[in-house]
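Hypothesis: this fold can be encoded by more than one sequence.
Test: take the structure tokens below, design a sequence, compare later.
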């Protein structure tokens, strides 16, 4: 039985807590939160122990789930690792690149399990493509949300776009060669909307737009590769593949088109998308990595790389606005 502790029992922390309570082979030993009102209500509602300090909680658990504001990530992660505890921390990894570099070194040297909460990796619409060969050469992303003051401790790049940066870095097995970016601060002190172009050494180009001041929500990624288009709707949990690949699958709709150089068969497939809870899946994966002694699904290096690109984007935006 794995003993889990939770730091941060606010809005997102409660979602984590609800999921931990449903995961087998896990005991939630308690939580720590600096807000008395939140802590008291959580303790009463869930009937779990409220600890008086992060240190006290860490001494009572095997692994810690950190859902505190980003500015506290480095301090709490470092404390946990030095106490020999496995760490799950919500994205982004840390607040600054100096913190990220220090934490990466500490995590690697600790030989403990460390997972970063890039939950879209576990989105069933993305997971539905796990057996499909993805080699995109052009990527278009729109991630839009309505304004919520909770996320404004960081820019829209670290709040929203970093999800897509992480996915793209997993898909494109090539180094970033060039980044151009523009962003505008509208309702907060940091960029609330941004448009970014990332170019890779292998020729792939990714265009990303993220906004947290939109009237409607959207979380879509479109991949274009040789002979295929793949659409992923992270919000609606839908996936579509349009390709020239011949298939005998009766569930795939096919039709012929005249290209001017002859007819080609086009196949439209909608892979089955499982009805799964992405957050529960990522927390379960963290638990399994500890109990089975395997690598975490989203490593500290993954979190570092996503942060590195995110901060390169922020540097470009800052230079553009000077």
């Amino acid at each position: 039985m794995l003993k889990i502790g939770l730091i941060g029992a606010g809005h997102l922390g409660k979602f984590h807590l609800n999921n931990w309570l449903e995961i087998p082979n896990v005991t939630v030993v308690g939580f720590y939160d600096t807000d008395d009102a939140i802590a008291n209500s959580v303790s009463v509602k869930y009937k779990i122990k409220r600890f008086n300090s992060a240190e006290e909680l860490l001494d009572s658990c095997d692994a810690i789930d950190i859902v505190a504001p980003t500015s506290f990530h480095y301090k709490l992660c470092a404390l946990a690792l030095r106490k020999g505890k496995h760490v799950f921390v919500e994205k982004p990894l840390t607040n600054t690149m100096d913190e990220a570099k220090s934490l990466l070194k500490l995590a690697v040297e600790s030989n403990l399990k460390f997972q970063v909460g890039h939950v879209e990796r576990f989105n069933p619409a993305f997971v539905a493509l796990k057996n499909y060969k993805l080699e995109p050469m052009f990527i278009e992303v729109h991630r839009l949300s309505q304004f919520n003051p909770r996320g404004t401790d960081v820019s829209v790049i670290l709040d929203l776009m970093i999800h897509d940066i992480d996915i793209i870095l997993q898909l494109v097995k090539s180094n970033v060669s060039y980044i151009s970016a523009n962003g505008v601060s509208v309702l907060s002190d940091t960029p609330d909307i941004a448009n970014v172009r990332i170019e890779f050494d292998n020729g792939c180009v990714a265009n990303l737009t993220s906004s947290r001041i939109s009237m409607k929500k959207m979380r879509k990624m479109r991949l274009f590769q040789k002979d295929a288009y793949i659409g992923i709707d992270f919000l609606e949990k839908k996936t579509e593949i349009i390709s020239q690949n011949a298939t005998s699958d009766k569930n795939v709709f096919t039709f012929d088109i005249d290209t001017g150089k002859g007819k080609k068969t086009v196949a439209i497939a909608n892979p089955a998308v499982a009805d799964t809870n992405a957050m529960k899946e990522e927390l379960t994966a963290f638990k399994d990595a500890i109990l089975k002694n395997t690598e975490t699904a989203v490593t500290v290096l993954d979190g570092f790389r996503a942060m590195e690109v995110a901060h390169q984007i922020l540097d470009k935006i800052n230079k553009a606005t000077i």
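DSSP finds nine helices and 14 strands in the chain. Residues 2-117+279-298 form a domain with the Rossmann fold fold (CATH 3.40.50.720).
Hypothesis status: open.
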